Amino acid sequence: MKLLLNQMTVFRNGAADQVSVLVDNGRIISISKEAPVVSDARVIEFDHGCLFPGFVDVHVHLREPGFSYKETIETGTKAAAHGGFTAVCPMPNLKPVPDSLEHLQPELDAIAKDSVIHCHPYGAITVGEKGQELSDLEGMAPYVVAFSDDGKGVQSDDMMREAMGRAKALGKIIVAHCEDESLLNGGYIHDGDYARAHGHKGNVSASEWKQVERDLELVRQTGCAYHICHVSTKETVELVRQAKAEGLDVTCETTPHYLVFNDSMLQEDGRFKMNPPIRSEEDRQALIAGLLDGTVDMIATDHAPHSAEEKSKGLEKSYFGIVGLETAFPVLYTELVKTGVLTMEQLIDRMVTKPAQRFGIGSALEEGAVADLTVFDLDASYTVDPADFLSMGKSTPFAGRTVFGKCLLTLSGGEIAWQEEGGN
């Protein structure tokens, strides 16, 4: 069926234009100022429709197989579509861990059966994500977007060096959760004023950046393509800045919660607990500066759903992780674009273009491209209520926050993956 997205606002070349987009057979047929005359198309129009290429999230946890009481491929990808995402990359901390093609197959089967958007899984770097033996990288390479042990840092220098060498030979990226476990000392929130004032064990910034420093030296040795997950510290930003100036093949991501919160804003609630932790205002400002100068390439969500019980035990005992797919764009638009920190085009670059280019996924808003598109009403203001989430996970530090930007429609491959009730 043909779809005509009629008179949508698009942002390009520093201005907002009105265009009509014709979609047929899963692709964008035309983008024009005037609506094309077509008799056999379903016309979709909104009073305040702003059209974007579908967002790309290279860091999510969909929990299936193994932990479907937290999230499933179906609920997670529907939540993604509800947030405007048309491509996601689920991490491998699953059961079984996808450390071989045999162990990857249940996830591939679930994606084929239940995903409503494009879903590109990771393969694990090490068997069982235990850091002791390398996974069957060669066997999984044709079926995975990259390799990661997200949730755990690879502690062995030799193991990471060998993984980088094999990944380079396969043309794949090593995607690293950087955490030196010898420096954690039981810390679970940032080692700052809030932790000291409230009697919490602090997680020092060096637990992140020291392993980044180690990995960058290994990149120098191997020439591997390397990507750093969920950057949270000013030291990591500076290390990446220097590595890029040196010409290393390095990219990194941060997340909405590190860009909006600092540790003075923490509450005694599990919805403020994630790994790495929300850090200082100085760290937050360094991340924003990194976004602006291109050191921080992209924004991911690290969507990490848990059960209500697992997140109900306060900062100390709750599981690490929060959900983010359904709040990412409205939070970033409200906090960064409406305040003048980023332009809309810069935000879309960090949420679509940069991750798509680095990981070879996603689609552009141009004629002939796959119709991966999302429409938002940027004038719509509302309070974030986790009860409205399609995700099974409800734990978010943004609950109760007023944001602008409501998703009205998401197309994945030209098919409607999400549409707001009442839309034409």
What is the element string, with H for helices and E for strands? EEEEEEHEHEHEHEEHEHEHEHHEHHHEEE
What level of helicity do the residues show?
25-40%
Helix segment count?
12
Distance separating the two termini: 15 Å
Largest sheet: 5 strands, parallel
Describe this structure in words.
The longest helix is centred in the middle third of the chain and has 17 residues, at 206-222. The chain is built from twelve helices and 18 strands. A hairpin with a 2-residue loop joins strand 17 and strand 18 (415-419). It has helices at residues 73-82, 101-114, 137-140, 157-170, 193-198, 206-222, 234-246, 256-260, 281-293, 314-317, 328-337, 344-359, and strands spanning 2-12, 15-24, 27-32, 41-44, 50-53, 55-60, 85-90, 118-119, 147-148, 174-176, 189-190, 202-203, 226-228, 250-254, 298-299, 373-383, 402-412, 415-419. The model has no long low-confidence stretch (mean pLDDT 97). The strands form five sheets. A five-stranded parallel β-sheet has the order 9-10-13-14-15. Helix 6 (206-222) packs parallel to helix 7 and helix 7 runs parallel beside helix 9. With 424 residues, the protein is α/β, with parallel strands linked by helices.
Short précis:
Helix content is 30%, strand content 22%. The chain is built from twelve helices and 18 strands.
Features of the shown structure:
4-stranded mixed β-sheet; 22% strand; alpha/beta; 12 helices; 424 residues; single chain; 5-stranded parallel β-sheet; 18 strands
Fold blueprint:
Elements: E1 2-12, E2 15-24, E3 27-32, E4 41-44, E5 50-53, E6 55-60, H1 73-82, E7 85-90, H2 101-114, E8 118-119, H3 137-140, E9 147-148, H4 157-170, E10 174-176, E11 189-190, H5 193-198, E12 202-203, H6 206-222, E13 226-228, H7 234-246, E14 250-254, H8 256-260, H9 281-293, E15 298-299, H10 314-317, H11 328-337, H12 344-359, E16 373-383, E17 402-412, E18 415-419
